[in-house]
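Researcher: Structure prediction, please.
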Amino acid sequence: MTSTPDVVPETTTTDPRLPAAPDTIAVYTDLNCSFAHVAVHRLHETRRRLGLEGRVWFDFRAFPLELFNREVNARPGVDSEISVLGSLEPEAGWQLWQGPDWTYPVTTLPALEAVHAAKSQSWHASEQLDRALRRAFWAQGRCISQRHVILEVAEETGAVDVDLLAAALDSGTARPAIMSQYDSARDGRVNCSPHVFLHDGTDAANPGIRARWINGGFGTGYPYIDEDRPEIYEKLLRQAAELL
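Model: Predicted structure follows.
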């Protein structure tokens, strides 16, 4: 996770990171990133508070940490973040992993594929599945690497056609899109999970939060929040609404 609190306008109009339509915000994240869990919760809650549900949509895109880092997102690092990030947004839902180590998710790629596959049903279906998968991992300790868990979570949303989702997962139709999103994020084009992009080129990496690690890096030390400005989410949502 790298972070900057600033919202920086881009000038290009052909940037593959940008959402295709002005009513959409592109959000690059991984599902097992605690900073992204905070960001997604704030995006949803700010949109609801501003009355923009049904007008501004979230296009969740894959920033697969396991591909960038070439290893599993290590549990010690994830665990070290929970009390720090959980204190910023306790209502997002948090819990230390309670199961045996061998039940801990080893990959998020199938779940990321599911979130993308649900877009073929609707933005709403994709958004609800993304948020439910985050809560399933962070708050409920469920192994979202597994097909049956992904489909159970999808069923629980009440917003996803599970048969269609299962068919998409089994055929692998969403995998090329996930790899395309990964390619669009490489070489520093996307700074971190989360990184938000508006249709007009505005972007914000880890919106509002500046953090650093103390007593070692990820998996050894722990994060320290130097700055937290949640009000940036209202600025982003209002700016997106002005593009409509």
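Model: The chain has nine helices and seven strands.
Researcher: Thanks, that helps.
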